[in-house]
Amino acid sequence: MRDILNSMKNIAIVGFSPDASKSSNIVGNYLIDQGFNVYPVYPKEGEIRGHKIYQRLTDIKDMIDTVVMFRKGEFALTLLEEVKTVGAKNFWLQLGIINDEAKQKAEEFGINFIQDACIMIEHKKEK
After folding, report:
1. Under a CB-based contact definition with an 8 Å cutoff, are residues 108 and 83 in contact?
2. Cα 51 to chain centroid, rounded
3. Which pTM does this prediction carry?
4. Rounded Cα gap, residues 11 and 36, in angstroms
5. Nearest 5°: phi and psi at 5?
6. Taking the C-alpha atoms of 69, 73, 79 and 80 in order, what is their torsion angle to the nearest 10 degrees?
7. In 43-100, which ranges are E strands?
8. Which residue intervals define the domain CoA-binding in the entry (predicted)?
9. Per-residue model confidence as pLDDT tens digits over 9-36
10. What would the pLDDT profile of 71-119 be if each residue is shown by its tens digit?
11. Do the beta carbons of residue 48 and residue 18 sit within 8 Å?
């Protein structure tokens, strides 16, 4: 986990809600405040704090090293295919999100995988 946290620069957050009361918004804004390049992925168009919202991970043209998922666990396998397609080396499922099948496949693909952990809490521990 420490290696992932220390290597992150370009982070796509799948499920980054524009609603300030949502966990994904709180975590996404924390990562922006920490100086990371954050790419919100959400079904609605627009911007969050000046960052363009993308409808799909594969719509992002920049190189993404870490994908953080704020969706139900059953979506992890589908998203893992996109993570692989964009060449991200880290796939992080937020606190309460678990998919052991996605974990196994990520390992087969050589993608670092974290599940059931909050990236904001873990980053604060490392500071």
Report:
1. no
2. 15
3. 0.96
4. 7
5. -60, -35
6. 100
7. 47-48, 51-52, 66-69, 90-93
8. 4-97
9. 999 999 999 999 999 999 999 999 999 9
10. 999 999 999 999 999 999 999 999 999 999 999 999 999 999 999 999 9
11. yes
